[in-house]
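Model the whole thing, not chain by chain.
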Amino acid sequence: MSILELQEITYTYDNKQYVLRGINAKMEAGKMYAILGPSGCGKTTLLSLLGGLDSPSNGRVLFDGTDIEQTGLDEHRRKHVSFVFQTYNLIDYMTPQENVRLIARKPPLPYLERLGLTKDEAKRNVLKLSGGQQQRVAIARALASEAPVILADEPTGNLDADTAQDIAEILKESAHEEGKCVVIVTHSNELAEQADAVFSLKYGKLQTII
Amino acid sequence: MNFINRAWLYIVRKKGKSTLLFIVFLVMATLVLTALSLGSASETARENLKKSIGGKFLVACDYSENNPYLKIEQNENGMLIYTTQQISPELVEQIRNIKGVEYCSAEDESLVTCPDMKWFAGNVPIVEEFRQSAKIIGTWKSSENSLFTSGRLTLAEGRHITPEDHKKVLISKDLAEKNDLKTGDTIRTEKGFDLEIAGLFIPRELESVNEQVTTYDKIQNLIITDLSALVEMENGPSVQGFKELEVSVLDPEEMESIMSQIKEIQGVDWKGFTVTEENDSYESTVSSLKQLSGLASAFLVIILVASVAVLSLILTLWARGRVHETGVLLSAGIRKSSILGQYMAELMLIAFAAFLLSYFSSSAAVSRTGELLAAGQKAFGVQEEDEGADAGSRGGSGIGTQDGIREMGPADLEVTVQLKDMILLFLAGLAVISISAGIASVSVMRLKPREILAKMS
């Protein structure tokens, strides 16, 4: 059974300019999905709708068969999804541990250590970490949140190839080993190739590639 | 992590911003607390003044041509001027029953000759006719007579004269001892009236050696009696009631209201009386305090408005810098109310510390202000004492009562930071913070999470 489902999703700016047109898709737990597409095609918009950051102009987003508007977008964001952004989006006055604890009740250190941060690094100010380390903190936060869905927007966009590969592996692991549904928006074919299913977004329409 | 934890982390990690806010709050709180304390002090001083000065007005028989009851008669001794409508004990009673009236000092006076009495001699030569005479005051209730209420006389033995008494007197203890008299004894007048001694009084002070005073005017020779005895002894149309009634009120600010209530009393033709307010001392004293209170209020409003403006400006500028953080928190499912709560909690925590510290800074400020005001008040008190002494010499009894000195004693002007001022400061601070944080956050908080995230990128 799909954990996330898009039903006839349409999104327009000012009721004129169509970004998404009648999109239908289903996503299951334990799989990693990639949405490919050129810049400005609406990938981030689609991710925002899945994550309850915005509402579609038409159509419904279902989580476990329930419309997320019915659940409440705050509630959906808090309980069902966690985000990983290209720019990491960490709170700059907090340590990695505190950033993870921001939304997770579990002890943060095991997650951070699993993602390669030392105890010392876990206590530093996040701005003193490298880009790769910061993205690992963001992923640790997503993993520790207990949300069954991870939505990642260009998670490797600012990282070098080796770190990008590490991050891709971690996300894949969290899907396959922890049963999370990972949805990645990217324009990187290398990252998309590691996904279990790949969608292409063009002219507001979503097509299944793999 | 709850909003309090987040707020605390922000405060301790963003030391520069927290310190700046702390200073802003400290300055604001010091100014607000100073203004509040000044306002409270002036209010307290006004209350003290009300208690110490009270208010007075004089109801007196009108001896001008405007009085339709005025009579002018020629007799063997010269010209007799009197009014047929005088102040009756019943009218005094009615006035006394008006709410807010503290004392009614009604009296009329004359001279009484007692051939058997040994008087204290004055230092002004007088004609033979008056050598065995003394001043006699007919009063309503001697306990409310200004001689006693001012403390000039104190009842030492016996009891006060009441309106129900007839031919009862109060004399000085000195006079009683000089004549070997005690309470219950009688004094016989030249006209054959026996006046029973109801009580003995002690004067606070006697006339000085240099003071020019006749025998009958000496305070040790003063006789205080009931009105009915005076009327019977005088036995003439000129003494049928009281000539003057001094009404003391508890709150000088209620004076006008009480005066208008008096004029509504039925059965009295007010064309025969004058009603004169003696409230100048209170008004002149309180006017500077009212000014101070007004200044403190205006100062307070300006500070509060300026605080909201400055704080809103600072917070609005900072809120722009916190769009990123707001977006991250929203994307993590943290509610807008919790985010606003965090921002408010940050301000509250800093403000709380600043407000507590402001107790000391404003205490120092108000202490200096208090010294200045006390110095001014002291100077004012000295001036009023002089005026009071003059006013006392115009007293109805004809004896320098020096009421003014007692009434115009310096009011307690203590400018200190009080608990209620601190509570008001916290309430005002809460309002300022809520308004400022609301103004600063509204532009970010009304956006959808995605719009905030778009701004972030």
